[in-house]
Each structure stands twice: as structure tokens, then as C-alpha cells.
Amino acid sequence: MKTLLRAVLVVDALLVLGFGVLFLLTPWTSLYNALQLVPTDPSMVGQAFGVVLLGMAWLALRASVHGAMTTPVARTVGHVNWVVGVLMLVWLLALRKPALTGFGQLVSVLAGAVLLIIGFGGVRLAGAVRRRERVLAAEALVAERNAKAEVKADRRAAARDTAAVDATNAPRSAAPLTAASYVPVEPVMSPRSNVPPDIPTTPPMRTAPLMPGVPLTPEEEAAREAARREARDSVANPRPPFHG
Length: 244
Prior knowledge:
The protein has about 240 residues and is mainly alpha-helical.
């Protein structure tokens, strides 16, 4: 469709170029008399208008090559063409001015009709191309956003997989001891002696003589009896562990 619009722009450029050259030749009265046209008076105005038309023709040709200029230039040139065509038809058919001969009036009416048809066609075609470009741009934007979202999702999935692999390969270490996880352990008391197991008790003294058949002296008997009493007292009243 854009190729067709470029072709319409080329036709517009050639048509406007022909009118521009014709107005540049306003001082050539014999040419206007041969075409049975009314020359522009003064000639300077006709030539100035011809230069403007040549500029529009160059702009249309440039827009037919550069894609970014195609749609806006086609709309502008199309509106100018159909407005000029309507003016020509109104003046020639309704107002009968300027007074032309049969051939001159026929050429002018045909030129106005061609401008009207090409102008309307160019405007409609430019609007269709513009709507299509907007749809394509919106689709491209949506596709770009979806591609970015997919890339982000892939990165997040890769990061999760890497974290899972690292957690699997990492050595297991003991959990740090915190105040919430600390539970004091009460020492287990012996049911018989009522003494904690981690407090060593004094081993009982041997009551038998070291050597059988050897009697003990009174001093040894007294020391042995004192050791027994001390052992009984330590068992009955255990001392707290020494904290140096």
C-alpha cells in the first residue's frame, strides 16, 4: 500500500511540475494564446506561483523516496490538490470566469477534475497507510515488551537455579546458637546421693587394712575414722563446683 502511495506522489509531483513550468512561462503570451488560456497579470505573480509549485513538486518527489516523509507529505499535497481542483471547478463552471474559449475551458475543467480526484485519492491512501503504520508500531511495541519480559523471566529462573545448585553443593554447617534457640540443660541429680553427675565425689576409704594380718595402730584407726566421717559429710552436703 505504501508503494502505491509513493506512485501517487510521483504522479502529483509530475502534475504540479507541469503547472509550475506553465506559470513560469507566464510572460510567453503566444504559448497561452495557442493553448487558449488567460495569462496571469501581472506576469511576476504567475512566475512566483510557478516557483512555489516547483517547490511542491520537488517535495513530493523527495517524499516518494524517503519513507518517513511519505505519509505526511502525501496528506498535505493531497489536500492542496483537491482544494485547488474545487476552486477551479467553481470558478469555471459556476461563475464562468475567466471567459475562455471552448478548448481552453475544456482543458481547465479537466485539470480541475484531475486535481480533485488525485487529491482525494492521495488523502485517503495516506490515511490508510498511516493507520497501518500505527498498528504495526503498536504490535512492535507489544512484541518488544514481551521480549523484555521473557528475558527478565529467564534471568530470574537462571538466578533461582544457580541459588538452588549452590545451596545443594554448599557444606552443611551447624546452625548458629542464638538466644531463642538456647535451652539451658539442668544437671541430672542422682536419686540416691542427690549429687550432680559432673561433680566428682570423694571415693570411699578402704576399711580393710592394706596388708592382711597386720594390725593398725591407734593413730591410723583415728585417721581412718576421720576420713570416713569427712566422706559421709561431703556426700550429705555436696559443695558447689569451684570457680577459679
